[in-house]
Amino acid sequence: MSVVEARGAAPSQALGRHPRQLWVLWRYWMVREFKTRYAGSVLGLAWAFVQPLATLAIFYVLFGLVLAVRVPGLDVNNGYLLHLLAGLAVWLPFTDAIGRGVGCLAAYEDFLRKQPMPAEILPAVAVGGSLLVMAIGYALLLLLSLTQGAPLRLTWAWLPLLVLAQVALTFGLTLVLSMAHFLWRDVGSVVAFALQLWFYLTPVVYPLAQVPERFHVWYLLNPVACLVLAVQWAVLGMAMPGGTLWALLAWVLLLGGGGWWFFRSMKAALGEAL
After folding, report:
1. Could you give the number of structural domains in the chain?
2. Full-prediction pTM beyond 0.85?
């Protein structure tokens, strides 16, 4: 039996039988995360608002005003701004969670060695820390959509499901990457590069309509692109390739369920490394 399993078997089993205790533990670490993240900051929690707005402003000025990118088929005021915001509402919390989560096990290696606990809590805290950015992004998207002339659509009812899909995708991938980085430390550097490339393979700063149609099907192989396209469709009524929602469901099952299975199956190796 591994170190983590031997020392933490009883606590972990107890926590597994009592979801309320898992919730209390996750909440404790969430409070700790926010205190650590904004410690010594003048603006404090306001950075959760400033950073997404600053990112939105930079991309809008560069692509919307300087390069004058337009979104075909989106007949509302500031259509590109809404298109951009729909993409960033998905992308920013995703990269925030992945960026913080990939090294979470390695960062708390000494703590896990001395104070055994369910290791899944740490990736869950990384994803939980991105929920505020996600809430700000979606709230701003809905508010601006209404003020810029986008009609209230029945497809808005899909948003809760899309948010759940986003959390499941992000958590599953964070589980995989955090464990992989703990075991093979090169993973963190690869992820940093991959996220830069991934951003431009996702229709955030450009509309899919400007991509030749023969390439549209390839975007279904990108789980974040599927999610972005689904949000743009649900909120703004933009067209998306056929099968996008089915592809998104497949990615949720693959990354969400597969990420959990991979993490659990590698916990013995985690214990041996500790």
Report:
1. 1
2. yes
